[in-house]
Every structure is written in structure tokens, then in C-alpha cells.
Amino acid sequence: MKKFIIIFFGAVLVITAVFFAFVYYVPYSEGTRAGELIQFSHRGVLIKTWEGEISQGISGAQIFSFSVLDEDKDVIDKLKEYQGSYVKVTYVQRYTSFAIWGETKFFVTSVEKENSSHFNRDY
């Protein structure tokens, strides 16, 4: 009976580790999006995560919500600096997310400031 319990808990531990590794290292999709960075904040009561939103339409009807992992300090600093600007972000979409990572399945990995055809018109 003791051997069964050890094997059972060992199998549960291995399955859990494989699940977390799959969710973290295997992306569902990767891509880029561009728009006006309208919100970026450090949210949460017990678990603080970095969350943001990009408006992809003129009326604000299309909002892209995203998270940033705490380990991406450079991305966090750039997003703070570019608040209110037109930006292009590169992201990874995961199969699922956990509270310690962020509220969304989309995780921004890099950000660049861009020129917008909507905001930079010559009159």
C-alpha cells in the first residue's frame, strides 16, 4: 500500500509538471497588434499583475487586453513611457493563464512606438 501511494503521488506530480510546462512553453499563437495604448496598470489585491489595453479602432470599439509577465522589466518600462501613444506590440497567446501570470491569455513580449495614420495627418 505504501508503494502505491508513493507511485500515485509521483505520477500526479509528474502530470502537473508536464501540464504547467506545456501551458508555459507551448504558445497557442504569436503575433503583433497595433493601436493606442489607453491603459497600463499594476493590478490585484494579493497577486499583482501588469495589465493593459490597446484601442485598435477610432471609436474604441475594438479593445485588445493583454498582460505582461513580471520578468519582462524592459517591456513594462516602455509601456509606462508610451502611455497614450500609438504602439505596436508583439504577443504570445497561451492556451490558458494562471492568476500569478495575468488576467488574460495574451502576453506582450516586446513593444515599439509607431506612427499612426489616424493621429499624424498634415493639414
Automatic annotation (TrEMBL):
Keywords associated with the record: Membrane, Transmembrane, Transmembrane helix
Transmembrane segments: 6-26
Domain of life: Bacteria
Protein name per the record: 6-phosphogluconate dehydrogenase
Species the sequence originates in: Aequorivita ciconiae
